[in-house]
Amino acid sequence: MTAEVISVLVLLAVFGLALWRPVNMGALALVAAFVLGTVYFGSSVPEIAAGFPASLMITLIGVTFLFGLAKANGTVDLVVHGAVRAVGGRLVLVPWVFFVLAALITAAGAVTAATNAILVPIGIALAARHRINPLLVGLSIINGTNAGGFSPISVYYTIVAGGLDQAGVQVSPLPVFAATFLFNLALNAAAVTVLGGWRHKVQVPVAAGVGSGGTGSELPEPEEERHWGMEQQVTVLAFVLVIAGVLGLGLDIGFTALTAGVVLALLFPHGSAAAAGSIAWPVVLLIGGIITYISLLQAQGVVATLAGAVGGIGQPLLAAFLLLLIAGLVSAFASTNAMFGVVVPLAAPFLATGSLPLLGFVIALCIAASAVDSSPFSTGGALIVASSEEEHRTKVFRGLMAWGMSMIAVAPVAAWVVFVLVPSL
Q: Where are the alpha helices (DSSP H) in 250-301?
């Protein structure tokens, strides 16, 4: 068997064993990376370990630690309370508010990981308090991030345009932005429909003391001891500084959040133990293991070999379809930015000769590679799982698996039909 076949079979075995026995999938993937890497590929342990996503892990640790402190001292409760007041108590608007916020922040040039790290923990906390499906709020943020992710000044579009420029191909940025925004808007409407978001049509009472019937939809005032004291004010200031540092100065979100959390813990140490316990270590192991395995395959050229074989197909429409499928599949487990760097050069010959609709394929590629960011193995998906309440993490993870894995097929197929096949007819 070829390396490509063996690699896929081992990955399927990892998923199968994790479903069969209650063993962390990340631990299984790390073992698979070690055995396959050393025995079959002849890689050294340092080479295998180099694929461990340290930056993503620091992001997960730093963000969950900081929000753990904010939750322990009551700041999150107060912010959530104010957020629901801001929408007039209409819970049906909550997912859409986060969708719009994510789109605006990312369209302004923020890195998608930073947008997700800023909004996901707050959104999930609000969902938990008011019994909104956390999966719905999380997906709304990711869809919003992708909706704004291809503005002319966004990071995603800059990477795509750079790859096209190197191949001597240029596209207009505004149609790409408009099409990807509308696609993600429709995708979020589908998520709201499937996950029951339209059922939250009753307005939540926002007056103090109103609605104490215990149905889960009321908005009681925060507990008496939860008030805007010095600790809560300093916590909000810490968040403002983190956001300013990440969006304004380009600081790393993980280390910046961790620094802010450590300073808060030193100033107000009584909640530090709870904050450390709120770090989702099983999620860190899960995501780290899977990405390490996929990184091994990328380092050994397995992904490039598959994509290269597709690029050599003589039928442009079929090659475009397969390239979009590969983009979706790999992006679900690895870097979306890296996937753009692989697929764009392979598609460049077809685009340069006019064998494919240039604008349509670029739009389809952007959609196929980004829609799968809802996978639990992406930064946004991992943050959703890590930010969820511990007793709900398994359910949220399975929901993200179902939605994210379905996007591997749905997004590339839909994008290919609408933006590549139809314009080619």
A: 253-267, 272-277, 281-299
